[in-house]
């Protein structure tokens, strides 16, 4: 017919041009950027921490209207009550997704758990580090273990540092 079929390689190249681009006007929202409170690593959340957006309310409203229409013979217009349980379900799912995403993959710090129970957050971080040490085959340093300080060589111990923070300016 005059139109040649694309090879698999060419098709993948053309699809690659569209990868990561948004087809909807207005684009995607900016990621929520912050630093981990424990390890200070840079983090980005793709989900907005606040679920209260116009889009969310429209999703909840459309879902409740759909359920109302499905259950119309049973409830009639009283089916609009589906809005409240739909809202609760959306809220639980959204908060669970944000909580799973906000936990730091580097140090295991979970800010939500830290706000509720500090001791459990510390235990969870310790479990995270134990797992990381175990994966690398390194024994986990136990609490109360005595660590030997590194002894300085004679040359290092006799030298006076050139600049000190506690010295007074001339």
Explain this structure to me?
This protein is mainly α and 170 residues long. It has a domain at 29-141. Helix content is 48%, strand content 5%. It has seven helices and two strands. The chain has helices spanning 8-18, 54-70, 72-75, 83-102, 111-116, 118-136, 154-158; strands at 32-35, 42-45. It has a two-stranded antiparallel ribbon. A hairpin with a 6-residue loop joins strand 1 and strand 2. The chain is flat, with a radius of gyration of 28 Å.
Computed over alpha carbons, the radius of gyration is 28 Å
What's the helix-strand series?
HEEHHHHHH
Structural class: mainly alpha
Poorly predicted ranges: none
Largest sheet: 2 strands, antiparallel
Strand order of the largest sheet: 1-2
What does the secondary structure layout of this molecule look like, with pairings?
Elements: H1 8-18, E1 32-35, E2 42-45, H2 54-70, H3 72-75, H4 83-102, H5 111-116, H6 118-136, H7 154-158
Antiparallel strand pairs: 1-2
Helix pairs in contact: 2-4
Salient structural properties:
170 residues; mainly alpha; two-stranded antiparallel ribbon; 7 helices
In short:
The protein has 170 residues and is mostly helical. The chain has helices at 8-18, 54-70, 72-75, 83-102, 111-116, 118-136, 154-158, and strands spanning 32-35, 42-45. It has a domain at 29-141.
